[in-house]
Amino acid sequence: MDATQVSVRDVRSVGPDTVALRLETPDEFDARPGQFVLLRATVDGEEVSRHYTLSSPDVDETFEITVGVDPDGDLSPWLADLSPGETVTVEGPFGTVFYEDTDVVLLAGGPGVGPAVGMAERALADGHEVAVVYRDEAPAHEDRLAALSAGGATVVLTTDDLAAGVAEATGNGQVYVFGFREFVDDALAAVEAAGGDPDDAKVENFG
Q1: How far is it, in rounded angstroms, from Cα 192 to Cα 167?
Q2: pTM here?
Q3: Which of 61, 94, 127 is the last residue of a domain?
Q4: Which residues, including other chains, have CB under 8 Å from residue 58's CB and lie 6 or more apart?
Q5: Average pLDDT over residues 12-20
Q6: How many whole angstroms separate alpha carbon 8 and alpha carbon 86?
Q7: What is the model's pLDDT at position 141?
Q8: Rounded to the nearest 5°, which phi and psi values hold at 190?
Q9: Mean pLDDT within 116-145
């Protein structure tokens, strides 16, 4: 989809310095959990753009992105202050790491929890086995993680070592890794230590 203006439905806090934006789905926008969009906005007279991975299980009528708010950032504070009815410009979807209608093992660090919960919800609704291992000292989306656990998913939260959580979660599902480079390296090492093949993991490295 080319650059299109979309309306903001709501903005809500989902954790420390973290908000979720629910946006109106434009015509011909067809995305799977795990894919991302390019969001553009004009802030203080300058155009700013960032990539954000979807954090909703589907894009029916609306879709969601999760934004970590850096008080000194040039876009995230502006997004956090948006009100329903205001607009942003999006392009996409992009990305080859996405849900493929199978059992999933989702390893998430920091903002990677957004795509992880969205994909987990979709997979669970489709009747698949779901495991989420999430590392963060200040977790976001705790309500959705609790609902996933109550619905039968394996959910492991940690602030440090991934090895135990990955060993508990790793099974026959497709492994996905969402997070920044340090987390990605740690997650793939934990997969290997648990007897999995890190080369088979689908990785979205946020840089």
Answers
A1: 10
A2: 0.94
A3: 94
A4: 33, 122
A5: 96
A6: 6
A7: 98
A8: -70, -35
A9: 97
| Owning domain of residue 17 | 4-94
* Cα 64 to Cα 22: distance, rounded to the nearest angstrom: 4
Q: Are 109 and 200 found together in one domain? A: yes
**Residue 4: both structure tokens together:** 């299109």
Residue located via tokens 């490295």: 205
185: CATH:
3.40.50.80
Distance CA 162, CA 152 (A): 21
Q: What is the DSSP string of the chain?
A: ---EEEEEEEEEEEETTEEEEEEEPPTT----TT-EEEEEEEETTEEEEEEEEB-SS--SSEEEEEEE--TT-SSHHHHHT--TT-EEEEEEEE-S----SS-EEEEEEGGGHHHHHHHHHHHHHTT--EEEEEE-SS---HHHHHHHHHTT-EEEEESS--HHHHHHH-SSSEEEEEE-HHHHHHHHHHHHHTT--GGGSEEEE--
Identity at 88, one-letter amino acid code: V
For tokens 């080859």, what's the residue? 96
Q: Is the model's pLDDT at 1 over the cut of 90?
A: no
Q: Which of 94, 113, 128 is the last residue of a domain?
A: 94
Confirm whether 99 is domain-assigned.
no
Q: 67 and 76 in contact (C-beta within 8 Å)?
A: yes
The label of the residue with tokens 């086995």 reads 129
Domains contained in the chain, number = 2
